[in-house]
């Protein structure tokens, strides 16, 4: 039996390269990476318009003949896979062995001159030789020994500043490419784009001694050096370090506020803590946490590895009305270089990973900050909402390395493979940002409350002054009035008439305002109920889909029995089965839609025990009694309320318990609800025998009351819980002047307990 080898057409090999290096910016990035991996301290790009050529030169270690033949000329073979550290200690950035096809993306002709410690030669290739019919084994490059220096090789360069730099920096080893027949039109727009791309290749605090230049024919040395884009002023800085043991340190610096000579007054009157005093004066806020807390319920967290970064928040505009209210520091507009600096970028071993954080690309908002903002649009001063930052208000760098094996680069050189670990990586960075969001909202809320107090005090003082002035005028006019007794009756009558008219106007205004408030409260309650319906449907979607599938199959079976077999008895039997399914559907419709009935949209006196019993009865029918419910009445509570508010509370709690039972595989699930009254509050005590709170929330159980906080995940480690249920419950209880107690969950080994305290109504 003969053994025959595979071969590959040259065109196919070329297409592999083209697919993996698809644009000019990416091609240049790949070639500059190679200079970095060669331990170069200087890399020079020179575009010469008159000859339509490009030079890429570096003072790295160069290549030997063996490396050129065995590695450079072998597609997919790279020395960097196993030998990934340079002599100077740099971590090499590439390993796939296809970056050389970047040369083909840039031009049709290439001459490479490379000098190592013991060799000197030139390599020449016309990429158009990779023709339609030629095989890769029939396509050749020329390799010739040389005695020429790099300076001599570049003697054709017309810019004297390039020659000076080459003579100074490229005296010994290095590699130079001369590329002719450029495939792109290098107009002014392309050149600006290239400069912007190059400014992002290295992090702002580049400490690897790597300098990058981009010359044109008439460029000066100063104009040509590429400086990393950086933010010179910021409002908040967030630094973080994730270690191999999954411990994490987050450091937050406040730089947004300036209280001037009002510092002490505001610290006292706004009830800031002593720690806050120090934080406003420059002391960093340090948070020590770990991945279990940051990524509750997640698997594979040990695979993430070490990650670090610096993230900055900045306002784009200085708005006087908010600046005065919240004591913002003054700054000039930051929009000038906004596109260059905005976005959170990823650096692997101190070299950019495209396209994350690049403006006007699909990877600009790779953390989905805009989606988070849309899901939680609350103003920063909102008393209960969770403020979310916008994508264009953040910039910074996240640092990973090739040792983060669970975060591999795509072969296309455009991003990281979206493994389940990448999903966790993205969530981890978002959680780091949430620490800053919480701190900024904490500060603004306190300042907003302070300003409202000041405004109310000043208003009261002004009213008091006006009343005093009125009394003083009245006293001053007493003598005059005594002399005008004849007109007194008419004056009194006129004043009384004016006062009555004013009273009626005030009364109408107050009544109108109260009607508006009640209308808005009703609307908000209805929206919460609709949101609860969404939460319930999302949780039970599999059960509802299963019912739908069974019903469709039953209808199809009955139809076929009648149409094809003329079997009426069989069809009737199938249709009888559908009756039961219809009842099951009705049970689910009651649970999901009953709360929004018209008669429940008005505030009225309701017996809460009866309401809870009826709600649980609907759940029993829908769940086929798989959960054992117990409702205990410890006191009669009649409350003037919206029925849908308390139905939403029960529905959200039951839905959460059901999810927990299902995930933990609880064999005999139980839910106990107690209704009672203490000396001050009504209360609903809700308990289940599920797995209890995740360890991530044990330290601070109240965290689960915040919007979008959840630990429910799918098989890809993606969060699938809505994070809305308990937030809705919290908002309803606040409407009834109450609070929520979750403290017992910190010590419970299993099971979940929540006590809802609220006011109003009659107790017996």
From TrEMBL:
Reactions that this protein is recorded to catalyse: ATP + protein L-histidine = ADP + protein N-phospho-L-histidine
EC number: 2.7.13.3
Enzyme kind, highest EC tier: transferase
SMART domains documented for this protein: HATPase_c (SM00387)
GO BP terms, alphabetized: phosphorelay signal transduction system
Alphabetical UniProt keywords: ATP-binding, Kinase, Nucleotide-binding, Phosphoprotein, Transferase, Two-component regulatory system
Gene3D superfamilies, per the entry: Histidine kinase-like ATPase, C-terminal domain (3.30.565.10)
Segments for region (Disordered): 474-500
Superkingdom field: Bacteria
Database matches in Pfam families: HATPase_c, HATPase_c_3
Entry keyword annotation includes ATP-binding: yes
Gene Ontology terms, MF aspect: ATP binding; protein histidine kinase activity
UniProt domain Histidine kinase: residue ranges: 539-762
Name by which UniProt lists this protein: histidine kinase
